[in-house]
């Protein structure tokens, strides 16, 4: 059973705490992905995302800094152990740099998951943050005019 590692880095225009919360809080996760998510934001807590397509367990959590999870999908091949997802968050010019390392991914599915991170996480997360920024600006303008 051949496995591989997927790595990626992306800058999201938000604080490390905001990005961390978007991943770990099931309501925020569902809001930015557009699909049901469940979970407990504690070490050992189980979670699901994408209407149960993804499931796993939180292994390590450092607020605003790091998330490490055990992670599988409903399409995981028989006999493969769960993968390990490591997300680290660093404050940079323009927001937060997410460094993603997804270890022990079944090699036969790695290309699909690599593209999935882009299409189903990075792009919607950026859009979610952009919308929240615009809404907070609108809220501030409206409160000034009251």
Give your account of this protein's structure.
With 146 residues, the chain is α+β, with helices and mostly antiparallel strands. It is built from three helices and seven strands. It has a single domain (3-140), classed as START domain (Alpha-D-Glucose-1,6-Bisphosphate, Chain A, domain 4, 2-Layer Sandwich), CATH 3.30.530. It has a seven-stranded antiparallel sheet. The N and C termini lie far apart (63 Å). The mean pLDDT is 93.
Mean pLDDT: 93
Q: Judging by the overall fold, what is the CATH architecture? A: 2-Layer Sandwich
How is the largest sheet built, in terms of strand order?
A: 1-7-6-5-4-3-2
Order of helices and strands: EHHEEEEEEH
Total strand segments: 7
CATH superfamily heading: START domain
Largest sheet: 7 strands, antiparallel
Span between termini: 63 Å
Sheet/helix structural class: alpha+beta
Number of helices: 3
How would you describe this structure in keywords?
single chain, 146 residues, alpha+beta, Alpha-D-Glucose-1,6-Bisphosphate, Chain A, domain 4, seven-stranded antiparallel beta sheet, 3 helices, 38% strand
Topology:
Blueprint: E1 3-12, H1 16-24, H2 26-33, E2 38-39, E3 46-49, E4 54-62, E5 66-73, E6 83-92, E7 95-106, H3 110-144
Antiparallel strand pairs: 1-7, 2-3, 3-4, 4-5, 5-6, 6-7
Helix pairs in contact: 1-2
